[in-house]
Amino acid sequence: MNLMKQNYFTTGEFAKLCHVKKQTLFHYDDIGLFSPEIIKENGYRYYSYQQIEVFEIISMLKELDMPLKEIKQYLDTRTPESLIQLLHEKQNEVENKIKELEWIKNYIITKTDITEEGLHAATERVSYVEMPEEYLITTDYSGKPDDKSMAAAITKHYNYCHDLGLYMIHSIGSTIRTSDMPTSGIYYSYAHIYTKVSGRIYPDLHIKPAGTFAVIYHRNGFNTAFESYKTLLDDLLQKGYTPGEYFYEDTILDELSMCGYDNYMIKISVHCKK
C-alpha cells in the first residue's frame, strides 16, 4: 500500500491536482470517458501521473465546446494521426476565438472612449481641432430620406463589413456632401454610411484627410441637428475657412447609453481649408 500511495493518487488527490470536483471524476468514469487506472476490491480508486495529461486534454477540449461524447469517441479510437488532425482543428478554432476576443476587446475600449468623449463634450459650440488621417469603410447611400431606407442601408453596410471580416463594429457614421447641407427636418441627403478602421488593410477605403476640422456636438438627436449644421458652417465661413467636400456625422451617445432616439448626441465635423 505504501508503494501505491507513492505512485498513485486517490480520487480526492487527483481532483485537487486537476482543479476539479470529485463528482466530475465519478461522472467521467460513469460514462466511460475517463476511469481510474486501478480500482481495488475494497472500492478504492487510484489514478496515475500518466493520466494527468489525458485529463488536461479532456478539459481543454471541453473548454473548446467539444461534446463529451465526441471526446470519448476520439479517445476510444485514438492514433497519432487522429491526434494530429484533432490538434490542427482545435488550433484553428483557438485562433478564430482569439480574433473574436480581440474584436470584443477593441469594441469595449473604443466604445468606452467614445462614451467618455460624449460625457465631456461641450455641446452646441464650434471648436477647431487638428485631426490625423482616418480610414473609413464606406457603402454608398442612395435610398430615400426615410427611416426604412436608412435601416436597409445600415443593414447593407453591416453585411459588407461582415464580408470583410469585421464583426464587432463599435459604431457607424455617415457623410453628407457640404453642397447638400441639411436645412430642416430629420431626413438628410446622406452620401455614405461608414465604419472607421485602424489602417489601410481593406479595399476601397475612403480617406478622411488630416488637418483642421470644425467640430460641433449636438444634443437631442437628429430632429434638430440641422441647426448645428448651420451653426458649424456659418462659424467656419465667418472665420475665413472653406469647407471640405463632406460633413462627417458620428453618433457619440446612442441607445446603449441614452434612453430614446431624441436624447442621442451627434458629433458633426468638416475639414476646413483657408
Automatic annotation (TrEMBL):
Domain HTH merR-type: 8-77
GO molecular function: DNA binding; DNA-binding transcription factor activity
Name of the protein in its database record: MerR family transcriptional regulator
Keywords: DNA-binding
InterPro entries for the chain: DNA-bd_dom_put_sf, MerR-type_HTH_dom, MerR_fam, Reg_factor_effector_dom_sf
Gene3D superfamilies tied to this protein: 1.10.1660.10, Regulatory factor, effector binding domain
Domain of life of the organism encoding this protein: Bacteria
Keyword DNA-binding: yes
Keyword Transmembrane on entry: no
